[in-house]
TrEMBL record:
It holds the Pfam family TPR_16. It comes from Coemansia interrupta. Residues 143-165 are annotated as: Disordered. SUPFAM superfamilies: TPR-like. InterPro entries: FKBP4/5/8-like, TPR-like_helical_dom_sf. This is Tetratricopeptide repeat protein. Transmembrane segments: none annotated. It comes from the Eukaryota.
Length: 165
C-alpha cells in the first residue's frame, strides 16, 4: 500500500506518469498476494453478486486500477483509461469511481451512448453530483459537435449533387 500512497501523492502533484508507475507496482504486489485459486477458477454469478462478496484484496485492486484510469484520462490515453476502468470493475463491480472513470474514458473516446447509459446509473444514486453533471454537459457538447459536423458534410454532398446536374 506504500506504492498506492506514493501514487496518490504524485497524482496530487500532477505527476501522472510517476503516479502510474507507483500504482503499477502496487498492483504487482497485490496480485502476488492473491493465492485464492478457487476464487479465480469459479467466479460467482454476477447477477447474484453482492457488495459483501467482494474481498478486501479485490477492493484494493479495484481502487488502484481506477486510479490508473484517472491518470490515463489526464494523459489523454483514453483507450487505456477505459481498459483500466473495466479491469477495476471486474475486481469490484460496485466501485462507483471506476464507473465514473469509465464514463470519462468513453466520452473522450467518442462512445457517447455507452457513457450516457453508465452515467444514468451513477446519477440514480447521486443526482446532484457536480462531476456527473459536468460529464453530462460534455456528452451534450460532443453530441452537438457531431451533429453539426454531420450537417456540414451532408450539406456539401447535396451541393455537389446540384452542381453535377
Amino acid at each position: 500500500m506504500k506504492h498506492k500512497e506514493a501514487g496518490n501523492e504524485h497524482f496530487k502533484k500532477g505527476e501522472f506518469q510517476e503516479a502510474l508507475r507507483e500504482y503499477y507496482n502496487a498492483l504487482l504486489f497485490l496480485r502476488g498476494l492473491n493465492n485464492d485459486v478457487m476464487a479465480t477458477a469459479v467466479p460467482k454469478d454476477p447477477e447474484n453478486l453482492e457488495e459483501g462478496d467482494i474481498t478486501e484484496l479485490n477492493k484494493d485492486l479495484s481502487v488502484i486500477q481506477a486510479n490508473m484510469a484517472a491518470c490515463h484520462v489526464r494523459l489523454n490515453r483514453y483507450t487505456r483509461a477505459v481498459q483500466c476502468a473495466q479491469d477495476a470493475l471486474k475486481s469490484n463491480p460496485f466501485n462507483k469511481k471506476a464507473k465514473f472513470r469509465l464514463v470519462q474514458g468513453y466520452i473522450r473516446e467518442g462512445s457517447l451512448l455507452k457513457a450516457g447509459k453508465l452515467l444514468d446509473e451513477l446519477e440514480k444514486d447521486s443526482p446532484n453530483d457536480a462531476a456527473f453533471a459536468a460529464e453530462r454537459r460534455n456528452i451534450v457538447t460532443k453530441e452537438a459537435e457531431a451533429e453539426k459536423k454531420q450537417r456540414r458534410e451532408l450539406a456539401g454532398m447535396f451541393d455537389r449533387a446540384r452542381n453535377e446536374d
